[in-house]
Design a protein that fits this description.
mainly beta, nine-stranded antiparallel beta sheet, two-stranded antiparallel sheet, about 5% helix, elongated
Length: about 220
């Protein structure tokens, strides 16, 4: 499930998620520094693990006003010379899925809801998704190929294959993990062996009183 929240201050949004019962402080974090086809900076996307999923906070500039499609693609490549096409298809951690929230058999892991740029070209929005994780394991977006976030020229229609008729990819950023997951505790931790205590030797039967030098060294039984 994905929820998009626009217009809320970041501090308030974080408070709402982190103040939930049982919520922990943010754990794994990542960031994508986006740039356009001209190589100029286009903004940032911050990823962080929160209670119930992953929070994505977008702060983008230089966009045309209106809707823009957002997708995570399967390879962490932002090659300008190819028009950002070397990053491969939209990320799918579940084989056989189709693109689009309204498509039969959709959506794919990398599908994200459209976001809207203001008349000045600024786009500030927040998204919460549980389609993937930032940690390790089968649901993580971090593999050997990495992953990239793309902004498309137009809005996604959520149906048309392969990218919802969203047009060219106009901004790209490789998602880089900045804070890794906490180390897992062993299920059966190995405990150090306990020292073996040997019982004190018992005195010999009928030994009688012992003689000793003043130093305390025994000389043998008294006769």
């Amino acid at each position: 499930m994905i929820r998009a929240v626009s217009g809320l201050p970041l501090a308030l949004l974080l408070f709402l998620f982190l103040a939930l019962p049982g919520a922990a402080q943010p754990r794994t974090q990542a960031v994508a520094m986006l740039s356009g086809l001209d190589g100029k900076p286009a903004g940032t996307a911050d990823f962080r693990t929160v209670n119930g999923g992953v929070l994505i906070v977008l702060d983008l500039t230089g966009l045309t006003p209106g809707a823009h499609g957002l997708h995570l693609h399967a390879s962490g490549q932002c090659d300008v010379t190819s028009g950002f096409t070397k990053a491969g298809p939209i990320l799918s951690l579940r084989p056989g899925r189709k693109h689009g929230y309204l498509a039969k058999g959709g959506p794919m892991t990398g599908d994200l809801p459209n976001q809207f740029a203001q008349p000045d070209g600024r786009l500030k929005a927040s998204i919460v998704t549980n389609a993937f994780t930032l940690g390790n394991g089968k649901r993580s977006i971090f593999d050997r190929d990495g992953v990239a976030l793309f902004v498309n020229k137009r809005g996604d229609d959520y149906r048309t294959q392969p990218i919802g008729n969203a047009g060219d990819r106009i901004a790209c950023g490789v998602v880089v993990r900045t804070r890794g997951p906490a180390a897992r505790r062993a299920a059966n931790p190995i405990k150090p062996p306990r020292p073996i205590l040997k019982p004190a030797p018992k005195p010999a039967k009928n030994a009688g009183p012992q003689r000793a030098w003043p130093s305390g060294k025994p000389l043998g039984p008294m006769t």
